[in-house]
Structure formats: C-alpha cells, structure tokens
Design brief:
Pfam families: Ricin_B_lectin. The protein is of the alpha+beta class. The protein folds into 2 domains: about 200 residues, Spore Coat Polysaccharide Biosynthesis Protein SpsA, Chain A (Alpha-Beta Complex); about 140 residues, Trefoil (Acidic Fibroblast Growth Factor, subunit A) (Trefoil). About 20% of the residues lie in helices and about 20% in strands. The strands form 6 sheets. Strands 7, 8, 9, 10, 11, 12, 13 and 18 form an 8-stranded antiparallel β-sheet that branches. Strand 10 and strand 11 form a beta hairpin.
C-alpha cells in the first residue's frame, strides 16, 4: 500500500502513516479490547485474509475507541525480500502492531464507528520464518478462501471486486468459505458502517469497478478451448491462449462499453488493465492504456452473451482467424462480421438494450 499524499507532502519519514490494512502476523493488542471487537475470525484457515479483515473491521466499526497499529514500512520490505529465500529459517525486522483503547468500552460492547490504523516507521519486531511450510502447496486456495470470507462479511456490493480479482464466479465459486453468519451478527452488533464509508474515508485510493457488467474468461465459438489473453505484459497485442483462468485471462466488460484485459489495478497509483482497441487502421486489435486512446470510441465495444463483439468505432467484429503463422494456429482479428459468437464466464448484471 502506497502512503497517502499528505504523508508524502510532510517530508518526515518518521511520521505515522495512516493505513487501511496491516500485516496480520505482527501486532500487539489489549486483550479485553480485542475480545470485545471479535478477535481474529476463527473461521479463517491456515494463511491470509486476517490482516485485511481486521483492517476493514477496525475502521468500519468502532467510534468510541481510538486504535493505533504501530508498524514499520522498512520491515515490510525486509519481509518480502526474506520470503523469497526458501533455504533456511530467517529472522527479519517486521512491522509491530499495537492496539490501545482510548476510552472505556460500554457495557453493551456496541461501537458506533471508526478506530484508526497507523504505520509507525521506527517500530520493530522480529519474525522468524520456517524453512518449509506444510501448507505451501495449498496456499493460494486458503488465501482465496479467506479473502472471499472477508468480502462476504464486510464489503457489501463491493465484494464483486474480490471475485473479479481471483477470476472466479460469484455464484458457485468452487470455494467453500464456511458459515459467516456469526461474523455478520458481529458486524450488526457493533453497528459497523458500510464499506462505501470505508472507501470514502479510509481508502479513497482503491480503484472502483462497480460499473462492471461481466468478467472472466472469454471464449470464441470456433475455438472453445482457447481464451482471450493479454499476452506479454509489456506488449500491445491480445492473443488466444489455452484457457487457464489466471489473471492474464481476466476480461472485464463495463457498462460504458470498455473491454479490458489483465489483472485489476488495485489503486489509482498502479497500472490498470488495458483496453482492447480497434483504431480502424489494420486488421489486428491492440491493447492500450484506456486513457491513452486517441478517440474514445475506438475503445468501446458492444457485446452480449453468445453474440458478436462489435467495435462502436468501425462496426467491425472481433473474430478468430485460422493461421499457420500464429500461435496455436489462431489469430485475433477485427473484420467484417461473419457471425462468430463469444461467451464470457461471469455476469454481475445484465446490460439494458
């Protein structure tokens, strides 16, 4: 997470940094207070998610407590560097968290809203990492499971962002994140504010994708085993590639008509997924940063499930052409529409026509 601009403008590297989340393995907390706000979610398993869940819960939920997490940005960088070495156990400087209630808890345990979380650059705590983790082979599954669990409890309509980021459907995602009824009851009991409030007041830097109609893998009727793919990260050509469901094959179609390929840009400071463009000058569609497209209509498309993908600028269709010179014998082109159909995996809402 990049520090907010007001901290950068201060020019004081030792000043506290307001942060929407933290590292979950290193913080100190008042036991009574921590119990009253629900501890860590006992339904999370193995690895990941607790840092984000606690961050959202703290900042959404508790007005009569002032909470301060002391962490260290330098420690965070050290940990990321150390984690890449698998040969031995390591000791590293890590962010330390400290939670301190600023007022007595009311007997009912009900909070109105608003703790706070800060990174304190000069704090230190040691973290010893095991050489071998028995759960390493399944770590992505547990990170995904716990992320979905946190999203279902705390993110309201914005939970679609987590499903999109993992490129999985919102209905029948194939991941059992467990029963969240007790955590939803906790949220109601603490009178937590909405995730929209969290974005407006705590994490305004987060990129919002609420205009998404549909997302996921996109397949053509002529080559159903191949998916639309962003290709090389530094390239400007979309390709067809055997379907694997990872972020390079995450396609988003928005209510504005944008067709974007690649992983989501989590904040406005990071690159966003690129727009598919038909500039009318050739037969090959290109990928460009959406804001760099000379004529906005060149980045707009009409698309319905099991129908064509049609450029609003040229009226041409995105289609698949057989070619011996192309990878897997398949090439993406824009040409006069021949009736090819495209299917996308996941719908959030259907466009009105």
């Amino acid at each position: 997470i990049i520090p907010p601009q007001d901290w950068l403008d201060r020019g004081d590297e030792s000043a506290p940094i307001r942060t929407p989340a933290m590292i979950g393995c290193s913080f100190v907390v008042d036991r009574e207070y921590f119990g009253d706000i629900g501890l860590l979610d006992p339904g999370m398993e193995v690895y990941g998610g607790e840092n984000v869940e606690l961050g959202m819960r703290e900042t959404e939920g508790f007005q009569q407590n002032k909470v301060n997490y002391k962490q260290n940005t330098r420690g965070r960088k050290t940990r990321q560097r150390v984690k890449r070495s698998r040969s031995e156990a390591h000791r590293a400087h890590e962010p330390q968290g400290h939670v301190r209630p600023a007022a007595a808890l009311p007997a009912t345990g009900v909070w109105q809203c608003g703790g706070s979380m800060e990174v304190l650059p000069c704090s230190r705590v040691a973290h010893i990492e095991r050489t071998r983790k028995p759960y390493n082979n399944d770590i992505d599954y547990y990170a995904k499971r716990n992320a979905l669990r946190a999203a279902e409890v705390w993110m309201d309509d914005f939970k679609s962002h987590v499903y999109m980021a993992w490129n999985i459907p919102m209905t029948n995602p194939g991941v059992d994140f467990g029963d969240v009824s007790e955590r939803l009851a906790l949220r109601q009991r603490l009178k937590c504010r909405s995730f929209k409030w969290y974005l407006e007041n705590v994490y305004p830097e987060m990129r919002i994708y609420n205009n998404t109609l549909t997302y996921g893998e996109v397949r053509n009727s002529k080559a159903s085993g191949y998916c639309l793919d962003q290709g090389a990260e530094d390239g400007d050509r979309a390709i067809l590639y055997p379907c694997h469901g990872m972020s390079s094959q995450l396609v988003r179609y928005s209510a504005d008509g944008l067709l974007q390929l690649g992983p989501l840009g989590s904040t406005a400071f990071l690159p966003d997924s690129k727009c598919l463009v038909d500039d009318g000058r050739g037969r090959m569609p290109t990928l460009k940063k959406c804001e760099d497209v000379a004529r906005p209509t060149q980045r707009l498309w009409d698309f319905t499930q099991s129908g064509p993908i049609v450029s609003r600028a040229t009226g041409r269709c995105l289609e698949v052409e057989m070619s011996k010179d192309a990878n897997f014998g398949l090439r993406l082109v824009v040409q006069r529409c021949s009736g090819q159909k495209w299917m996308i995996r996941n719908w959030i809402k259907h466009a009105r026509h």
